[in-house]
Specification:
The structure is a homotrimer of 305-residue chains.
Chain A (H helix, E strand, L loop, with lengths): L15 H20 L10 E6 L4 H13 L3 E6 L12 H9 L4 E6 L4 H8 L4 E6 L5 H15 L6 E5 L6 H10 L6 E5 L8 H10 L3 E4 L10 E4 L10 H7 L16 E3 L20 H20 L2
Parallel strand pairs in A: 1-2, 1-3, 3-4, 5-6, 5-8, 6-7, 8-9
Helix pairs in contact in A: 1-5, 1-9, 2-9, 3-4, 5-6, 5-9
Chain lengths: 305, 305, 305
């Protein structure tokens, strides 16, 4: 199947057919990785990884995905010292990079920058995170992880825990899960960090079942507990951050007898005790690994259109 | 044909035969790029991209050129934090990098650094810009663009517009065009940013026709209008920069009925209105793209000597 | 022969059989490099070069080694701006990178970080320097250089000159040479920079012959004079640094009629006059080059276990 889009800037572009096709291709890519054989289907192709804002995890994952398929990578990380600094527009930078590469993955601190970039790009463009905006490949690898860990997505019950207000990944994943049937949502957060209106409006419009609570234990009986980090940089009031940062800390004893799959976009800074890592529930490092086959799938599908 | 040099540090090294041979090889490389087939003639070779000063455009273009020919790249960008910082000489750094790579492209903020590097390098060395000094691959891609856009170089009329005093690219391109027959030059700048003596002396010595004017419209009837950016960092007096920065801004209406080819080394910061981009005159993004085949040609010719 | 370890964090892990096997494999790799043929025995494999602290020389050498064997590289240099900054533990970062690469080389400013990393890594891990701790691949390339320059290691007489107190390479090389028979040591330093107890204890325990002196000329009659840089950053008292920094400066005239092989881990900042470079005694650039075959050998042996 062909994807319905040339550029991926937001999870909102994805139909269920798109999402299913990507998951299906990612499963094939997982087999490529498991076999450990050299695969060169993207030989001769170049990915430009443009990271105006550093994100080592996302960048290395994209680069590994491209290299695992025999492609090559050119990287610009910490753009602030270069052309941008001299005042070049995103549009000009993207048009320039179009001359050098076959596909672009861009991380940028400004919301909307990905749409501006995609509007001028003649080669496929992937948003690798635009500030508080979208980070669709993270949402897709989250979705792939759910499918892999639980067998199916339809009908599952997902708890999102922590910073639901600023947590970009929580919003994107909600929109993506909305494509599936009878997914139930539990939003666990303190009052100050509740999911914003755009998320709850979406749920009501779609007629999806959800509850909101501050009670952490509500997460343990779900299929998925999606933990998030409370980000210091989101708070203007330091004392509020100090009060909330460790409001939900997952310990191994809380998971005793529970089948819940624990996810986290990483990095964690104390939200999950390291003793949890050894439990079968702990899926967050497998989740990180899933970034590679999902991005391999996207790179191949977008380059092959 | 073999090039007459092992290292490329300045356009002044180039004979017309050298320049023609590079343009001819660049045309072949363009065909390699157009076919989109995997080319591996530099397989097993390593380019060291040493950027003491960041220049994303030039670096990515060199790296893409090397990768498009099946070669590999090792990169050091933002050298200030590393050995250099510990006081190592350029000579020692270059001798060290000779142990790791097969060819070097170096950007450095100090004029003369490229000559020092080339003097000790046993592997081919390419100057990718040494401060206010030379940037020969930029001049070569400019020359290639003129040849490609206008069919021939002999006899053409070229306007250079903007900062002709500090604009390194304007100086290098003038020297290179001086190798060709009956090229006419029009230098368009405010009094404060006129071409320096080294340029006008060169033109008079060679007996080349040139005029100097502050009138922007003189550029529109030439074959080429080579626009440049007025660089803030060249001014000690901020108000002078503010007065001059937008002295020549090219708008689409000024090009109505004109066949002039508009070039710019990029990045632009307002010298060319974005509405110009859609006109056939606008060659600056094609010019950026030409950096790839020209650098492919140089890498192959220098490695093949 | 198989190495006795999966991860290389310290020279103390190495048996003589390990060291000999690595030198033997490095000699094969030297032949690969001399032939200049494309070698692809690590095709499809990815090295993650994680440099929390910049070290251009070590990083480029590791990257070149991987590329020379047909492998690929993903690099994170200047980690401070990324996840680490958000407070991620070394253990989590290494576990994450395990998902993307097949082998890791890490440089980190904190002593002990390499052991922490190796403890959680499921893929082979190489310490590329952990602060004042260990830098085993430097010691191995030093050892390989001695073997190559002098034909054999058993029975040689080695002078270590300069900062023997803080000089990590001097300590590591001493431990490694202790695996061989009848090596004699001469430690040349000012009183303030004498080799620490851990080194002299080691020598006495092993029953190895050594002398300590402040007299530079003692080095010239040895087989090897291993020069080191006096590092500014090790001194709290600036005037002491100024007094000691040029206490031992090697000049060409001092080597007249001498067969001593001069080594230096580089960068040098004045300890060896550049006129020495042309003498056959000067082995330090060949030493830098030896980093490539030694690292090629290690990468292949660890990936092939």
């Amino acid at each position: 199947m062909q994807l319905s889009f040339k550029h991926l800037t937001s999870t909102k572009q994805l139909s269920r057919a798109d999402a299913d096709a990507i998951l299906s291709r990612a499963r094939e890519m997982d087999k490529v990785l498991e076999k450990g054989k050299v695969d060169e289907r993207l030989k001769g192709k170049i990915l430009a990884a443009l990271f105006y804002e550093p994100s080592t995890r996302t960048r290395l994952s994209f680069e590994a995905a491209m290299l695992r398929l025999g492609g090559q990578v050119i990287t610009a990380d910490g753009f602030q010292f270069s052309s941008l600094y001299k005042g070049e527009s995103i549009e000009d930078t993207i048009t320039m990079v179009n001359q050098y590469a076959d596909i672009i993955a861009m991380r940028h601190p400004e919301q909307g920058s990905a749409d501006r970039a995609a509007a001028v790009s003649k080669i496929p463009f992937i948003n690798a995170g635009d500030g508080p905006g979208q980070h669709p490949t993270q949402a897709l690898l989250d979705l792939y992880t759910i499918a892999k860990e639980r067998g199916a997505i339809d009908g599952i019950k997902v708890a999102m825990v922590g910073d639901l207000k600023f947590g970009r990944t929580v919003h994107s994943l909600t929109f993506l899960l909305g494509l599936y049937d009878k997914v139930q949502f539990v939003y666990v957060s303190p009052e100050e960090l509740k999911a914003p209106d755009k998320v709850t409006h979406f749920l009501r419009e779609k007629g999806l079942a959800y509850e909101e609570t501050a009670d952490f234990s509500a997460a343990f009986d779900c299929d998925i507990a999606y933990m998030t980090r409370i980000q210091k940089e989101r708070f203007t009031d330091h004392s509020e951050y100090e009060r909330l940062k460790h409001i939900y800390v997952l310990r191994a004893d809380q998971l005793k007898g529970k089948k819940v799959t624990v996810m986290h976009p990483l990095p964690r800074v104390g939200e999950i005790d390291t003793a949890v890592d050894a439990l079968p529930n702990a899926a967050y490092f497998r989740q990180a690994r899933n970034g590679v086959p999902v991005r391999m799938a996207l790179l191949e599908m977008l380059l092959g259109r």
